[in-house]
């Protein structure tokens, strides 16, 4: 997955989440957004996340030529780049201003490109791990277990953004871990999908993805909120680096096979649909991070778990056990408690005199 007006009139038919005044040298918009706007963004994220997970699982388990996940991740970065350039063009209002903005903020700022290459590398690893995990785990198991990114994000937020968490929020972190433990203890009975799976590999991939999600999300939030640069400029910087990183991943992981079978081997309409969902989801994620914070993403995660579990039951024959249900319920409750707003998180807090250990212990 900025600068936009909180709510634009329906007269121009534009999407309020992707509308914006001019970027680049213009002053930043108000950081405070309405509850309605937050609900809009989180609802879109929820639907996209639930649909993406189920669709991705389907493309990795159908009895057809299996596509290369590394190429799908690379194409996603390319699409997100073009979408960001298009939205930036709408921001600036003319081709001349667009070119000027790109020259000044992208091609003329190698330091900023290098800075945004860090989350690009980490996100590329995270996305590839998601493909590995969903190739070896049921959708519901993956979706619930992946919520371990919440305590990881909490830790990164405290250490990197100088914030503190309330007692209730830390309690919800432990509740989340308990719920995930129940899910892993006895996730579900066998499904209709008959493919060779390695659960240990799946959980290992999720562990890597969780660490990547926590660090990259907070790192990107810090970069975005530490300056007045347009979010779409930041996205372009990150996606340019992401394309380079993912192309390198294609070469290192599947280079020989891609050369033999082709870059788009195994691609179907469903695969392209997954790529589209990943692209749109990435853009909306950056919007939420800019105007709220990484913790707010947890609101959509709970609903996505429920939706993807129901879809997994219908499509893949997943038989939900009592243990799994209790664990999923605890996860949903903990995500809700953790996401309750406690402070203004739309801006980076100034450095405090407290040490990292003191911030971790604050309740």
Task: Give a brief rundown of this model.
The chain is mainly alpha-helical. Helices cover 69% and strands 0% of the residues. The protein contains 13 helices and no strands.
- The percentage of residues in β strands lies in under 5%
Specify the overall morphology: globular
Q: From the alpha-carbon coordinates, what is the Rg to the nearest angstrom?
A: 20 Å
Instruction: Please report the number of helical segments.
Output: 13
Taking the sheet with the most strands, its summary is: none
Through-space gap between termini: 33 Å
Query: What is the N-to-C succession of helices and strands?
Result: HHHHHHHHHHHHH
Relative helix content: 55-70%
Instruction: Determine the structural class based on helices, strands and strand pairing.
Output: mainly alpha
**What is the mean pLDDT?**
76
Which blocks of ≥5 consecutive residues have pLDDT under 50? Answer: 1-31, 187-192, 359-363
């Amino acid at each position: 997955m900025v600068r936009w007006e909180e709510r634009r009139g329906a007269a121009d038919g534009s999407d309020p989440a992707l509308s914006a005044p001019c970027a680049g040298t213009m002053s930043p918009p108000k950081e405070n957004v309405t509850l309605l706007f937050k609900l809009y963004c989180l609802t879109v994220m929820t639907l996209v996340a639930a649909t993406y997970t189920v669709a991705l699982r389907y493309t990795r388990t159908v009895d057809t030529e299996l596509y290369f996940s590394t190429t799908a991740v690379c194409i996603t970065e390319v699409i997100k780049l073009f979408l960001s350039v298009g939205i930036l063009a709408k921001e600036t209002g003319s081709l001349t201003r667009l070119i000027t903005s790109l020259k000044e903020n992208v091609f003329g700022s190698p330091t900023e490109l290098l800075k945004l290459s860090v989350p690009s590398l980490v996100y590329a690893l995270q996305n590839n791990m998601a493909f590995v995990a969903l190739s070896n785990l049921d959708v519901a198991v993956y979706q619930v277990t992946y919520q371990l990114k919440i305590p990881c994000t909490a830790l990164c937020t405290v250490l990197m953004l100088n914030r503190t968490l309330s007692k209730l929020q830390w309690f919800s972190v432990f509740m989340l871990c308990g719920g995930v433990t129940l899910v892993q203890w006895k996730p579900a009975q066998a499904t209709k999908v008959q493919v060779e799976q390695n659960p240990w590999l799946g959980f290992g991939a999720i562990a890597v993805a969780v660490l990547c999600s926590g660090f990259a999300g907070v790192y990107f939030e810090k970069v975005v909120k530490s300056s007045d640069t347009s979010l779409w400029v930041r996205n372009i910087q990150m996606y340019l680096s992401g394309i380079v990183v993912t192309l390198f991943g294609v070469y290192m992981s599947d280079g020989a096979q891609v050369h033999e079978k082709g870059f788009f081997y195994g691609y179907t309409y469903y695969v392209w649909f997954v790529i589209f969902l990943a692209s749109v989801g990435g853009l909306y994620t950056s919007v939420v991070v800019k105007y709220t914070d990484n913790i707010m993403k947890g609101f959509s995660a709970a609903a996505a778990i429920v939706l993807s579990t129901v879809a997994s039951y219908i499509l893949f024959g997943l038989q939900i056990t009592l243990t799994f249900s209790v664990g999923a319920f605890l996860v949903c409750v903990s995500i809700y408690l953790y996401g309750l707003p406690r402070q203004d998180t739309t801006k980076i807090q100034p450095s405090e005199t407290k040490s990292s250990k003191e911030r971790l212990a604050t309740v």
